Each structure stands twice: as structure tokens, then as C-alpha cells.
Amino acid sequence: MREVPLSLNSQEFLSSVLKEGLRPDARGGYDYRDIKISFGPQWGHAEVLLGRTRVLARVSTTVAQPAPSRPNEGSLFFNVHLSPLSSSKFSGARSDFSTVVTRLLERTIKETRVIDTECLCIVAGEKVLNLRVDITLLDFAGNVIDASCIAAMTALSHFRRPDFIVNGEEITLFSDKDRDPIPLSILHVPITCTIGFSGEKILVDPNDEEESVMDGYVSIATNTHHEICYIYLGGGVTLTPALVSKCCEISSLKTQEISAQITKSLDEDSALRRKAGTDRPSAISSLTLQEKLDRLYVEDRTNKRENLQAEDGIESATFGSITIRYIDEMDTMDEDGVVALSESAAEPAQTIPDTSQEEESFPGF
Amino acid sequence: MLGTLENSIRVRPISSELSILGNCDGSARVKQGNSSVMVGIWGPVEVKQSKEDPEKCVIETTVKGATGQGSPLDKMYEEAVRQTCEQVVITSAHPRTCIQVIVQVESEDGAILAVMKNALCLALMDAGLPMRSMFAGVSCAQQENEELMWDPTAEEEEESTAQYTFVYENSRNNVIYVHCTGESTVEQYMLALQKSRQVATEVFGFYRESFEKLLRKDVKFQMLLPPIIKGEILEEPE
């Protein structure tokens, strides 16, 4: 579908207004738009609404062989999809801009070692957990870079990886129901702040209209320790060193505000999940003593190889010389245990309160 | 909301958000339990010359999964979405154009094809495209003990022996799309087909509510809509 360009009249109007230091949405030059962060039912599912720009981030994990150069580290992979849902500008195929955003996220998050990738190692040189972050742009209203970065950092902070144990050559990967998944170890939180330039004027967080008339932009990633992590200069604008350091100051201040908001929304989400009982899928707290003992017994049995192959409810998968087993504890429990577990798992999932106001809910029939 | 379902039929809470994307011509997000799908519609827009049809508009569909690379299953969903669209949308109203349908799965927890169809219907209505009727998707899984379970979660689907997805239209209450996997007897299939219609009626009631809520925000329609009385039961036009 063909992109509809901004009319010449609108372009003229915008440039003249920006020259006077006014912005079309009545913001000041240094104002950031409102950010809304919401979470999905699964771990690592975050949606960020920056003004009207809507970005969905999903984190997933797979077991794979590590790169020979880094045998004891898992990897982090970013995939940016500029969906045609968002604007007629984007076709959904890989474009120059999606490559820019992907590279920027890699430089900001992967290369500044935000995630302690050594924690993702299962067996050095044999098996590691690889993380994949899928970023989807759902609605476009400017500043995709910042929205993607906030979404990626929020989703990574929200994500829980599956627990595993290694015993000799055997690896046991637990499902969320069997053992509580573990948060990633995040070493620092870099956030990008994009600043547009229109003549002499500075436009923090440019929207789609401003993006179409500005001369260029700079995206500066800083973290809460006032450290600069990455600077990207786009659009072919030239900056004086004084302006660069001014932009760094602005970026650093905005990062403080945004990361505080991310922390706040994560806290709110975990409070909601705790209330609904979905924060710990294994729901150990609701088990009786006998059930807890059953669990220990199952865990203990995993250490004995010969018993396991014939057992019901244990599926094994072989990857090369290593066997990975998925243990389904539900089957090994008595009838009551199964009922208690499935109730605690199914009921609260329906009661996750939705933060969106526009939502029209239709509770059970 | 109609509360006409049998006690044996239980479905997860369903919710919708309409017109949430600012650039699309029509959009809707439907959540059923932990399954969530966003559908956006562009159209009628210009069409590539090679695909142009002088008699009707061309429908292009894209389905994207929540995580990972695209899979062959997405292609199957694309075809399913296109078929339903072609059946329902009056394509002859806009010859030499194209309607682009983009389906983005946000989180997947069972009954995904039914959620897609429901979101698709709401998005088509939101885009204001001429349609012959509305349609509603209903998913149903048959358990090992031959009991039927409506709107199953991913786990329930995995444990079941057969899964059905039916799409009903509301002008003559006919079936317009069926997707089945697994093994079942003809009697079981017929029972599922018959009982699922009740769920579809509920979904049509839900569409009505969603749209009333959307239109109430618009001054133009406020006068036309009945006032909200607490506990009022909305009647489905037969």
C-alpha cells in the first residue's frame, strides 16, 4: 500500500510553528509524551503506549547449542517487526528502518551486557538458553526507537525463565507449573531518549508529524547511573559538541523518570499477580504438607536414571548426547492434589484485572 | 449476557477493544481468557495492478504469530481468514480495490482460530465495510471421556482427542466455516455443531454490547440507543 505523505500546507505550517518553539500537540520542547505500560498473561509480554505509538514486546526462550566462541553464554536475539497494522508506511517486510531499530536495540541492550548471559548457561559448550525478543509495532505515531527500547527493557525485566537442574549428563527443564520460573539477572537498565532537531529547536520525543519535517535526530541511551551506553545520530544532521552534551543531560534526566515508571508498573503487576495467585504457577504455598513431600519425592527420583524411562508422565527428549526431560508432576500426584492444583491454576487466570480503561468486558455467561 | 447457555457449556470471559489503532480504517482486539488477537483492516485501498479484479475487491490477509518465525500454520490461518472475509464482505461493492486484513496474535492460549474470527468480525464492522451478516467463531474440544469442552485453553486442547472450530453467521444461523482435527464419530461431531450454536448466539450478543458501548461515546448515536437500565436483558433480534 502506498504511503500518504503529509500535504505541503501541513509541512509549511509545521515548520513555521516549530520555528516559533511551539509543538503541534501543545507540548514544550523538552516534554515527553505519556507512557502507559501494560502486561499480558504470560511472563515477558509487555505493551507500551507512548502517546499513540503502540509497541508489543514478547520474550521467549529456546534451548540450543552455544556459539563455539562463547561456550558458556546464552544469546539474546532481537526481531523488530514493523507491522502494516501501524501505518501505511510499513509493509511488514524487513526495511532499512527496522534494521536501524534492531541494531540500536542490540547495541543498547545486548552489547552493554544488560543481561547476565552466563546465567543462561545449562552445560558449558553443550546447551544454553537463548532469549528471543519479538518487538511488534502495532500503531505508529512517531518515536518508534524509544517505544521499542522501553518495551524491550520492560519485557526483559518482566520475563521469567524456566528452572532447570543438571545431574551428570542429564538436564531436567521444569515447566512453569512444576517449579516457579526465575527472573533474568538484569545488571542495568539503559533507556534511549530520542531528540529531534528542527533548525535551532530541540524536540524531545518527536511525534509522527514532527518526524516528517525535522532535519535529523539523535538517540542517546543512558542508564540510571548517569552512564552513556550508546549514541546514534540519524537523518544526516550535524551537531556541535556543546549540543551533544546538552542532549546527553536531557536523556539522562528522562531515563531516570522512565525507568522509575517501568519499576512502578512492574511492581503493580507483581502485586496484581500475587493477589490473583498467578505469580507462582506452581502455587507451592497452597499445597498441603503431603503434596509438598510428593514434590520432593519426584525431584529426588529424577536423580535415578533407570527408574525414569519407564515412568508415566515423564517425557524425555534427546538432543545429541544429552537427554532433556519434562516432568509432569500432575500425573504423579493423587487425585486430590490434581484437583487442588488445577483449581488454583485455572481460577485466578480469569480474574487478572485489566488496566485498560477502554476495554469492554463481558464476564462469564 | 443473555444467560441462555446450558449449564454444561462454560466459556472463558470475553472482552474487546474497538478502534484502538489510530491509523487503520478499522481495528479490534478480542481477548478470550489468556488468548488475545488484534486485527486491523485497511480498505478499500488501491490494489496492485497484477491482482486487480474488475468485478470485485481483492482481500489480502496476513497472520503473524506472537513469537518466533512465521510457521506453515500461519498460512493456514491466513487462508481461513480470507475465506470467511470473502464469504461475508460484499466484495462487489468496491471493484478494482483491495482490502488488507492484518491479524496479529498477541498471546496464544487455546481456541485461537475462534478468537481470530471474532476479532475479524468486530474489525470489519469497525471499518464500516458492507457485510452480508455478522459471524462468530466457536471452538470446542472433545475430551477422552467424550465430553465436550467449549473455548478450551491450550492445555485442554492438547489433552483432547478432537478439536472443532465452527463459524456461524447470524442472518440465517448457518455455518460458514468448519475446521476439525483429531478423531470423533459423526454423532459427536453433530452434537458439537448443534450445541456450539448457543455459544455463537452469546457472542453475537457480546458484539452488540461492544458496539453499543462504542457508539454511546458518539453524540450522534446517543439518542438512538436505549438508555442503560441496570439489570436489563438485551434482546437479540431474531
Tags for this entry?
heterodimer, A: 365 residues, alpha+beta, Ribosomal Protein S5, domain 2, 2 domains, six-stranded mixed beta sheet, four-stranded mixed beta sheet, 17 strands, 27% strand, elongated, B: 238 residues, four-stranded antiparallel beta sheet, 5 helices, 31% helix
- Total of DSSP H or I helical runs spanning 4+ residues of chain A: 9
Class from helix and strand fractions of chain B: alpha+beta
Strand content of chain A: 25-35%
Rounded radius of gyration of chain A (Å): 24 Å
User: What is the total domain count of chain B?
Assistant: 1
Write out the strand line-up for the largest beta sheet of chain B, numbering strands in chain order: 1-2-3-5-4
Count of DSSP H/I helices of chain B: 5
Q: What best-fitting shape of chain A do the alpha-carbon axes yield? A: elongated
Distance between the termini of chain B: 16 Å
Give the total of beta strands of chain B.
9
- Tell me the major beta sheet of chain B: 5 strands, mixed
Write up this protein.
The complex is a heterodimer of chains A (about 375) and B (about 240). With about 375 residues, chain A is of the alpha+beta class. Chain A folds into 2 domains: about 10-275, GHMP Kinase, N-terminal domain (Ribosomal Protein S5, domain 2), CATH 3.30.230; about 285-360, no CATH class. Chain A has helices at about 10-20, 95-110, 145-160, 210-215, 240-275, 290-300, 305-310, 330, 335-350, and strands at about 35-40, 45-50, 55-65, 75-80, 120-125, 125-140, 160, 165, 170-175, 180-185, 190-200, 200-205, 215-220, 230-235, 315-320, 320-325, 360. In chain A, the strands form 4 sheets. In chain A, strands 1, 2, 3, 4, 5 and 6 form a 6-stranded mixed sheet that branches. The longest helix of chain A has about 35 residues, at about 240-275. Chain A is elongated and about 70 Å long. The model of chain A is unreliable at about 285-290 and about 295-360 (pLDDT under 50). In chain B, about 30% of the residues lie in helices and about 30% in strands. Chain B has a single domain, classed as Ribosomal Protein S5, domain 2. The two termini of chain B are about 15 Å apart. In chain B, strands 1-2-3-5-4 form a 5-stranded mixed sheet, with helices on one face. A 4-stranded antiparallel sheet of chain B has the order 7-6-8-9, sandwiched between helices. In chain B, helix 1 (about 70-90) packs across helix 2 (about 110-125). With about 240 residues, chain B is an alpha+beta fold. The chains are: A alpha+beta (about 375), B alpha+beta (about 240). The interface of A and B includes residues 56 and 136 of A. Strand 17 (about 360) of chain A pairs antiparallel with strand 1 of chain B, so a sheet runs across the interface.
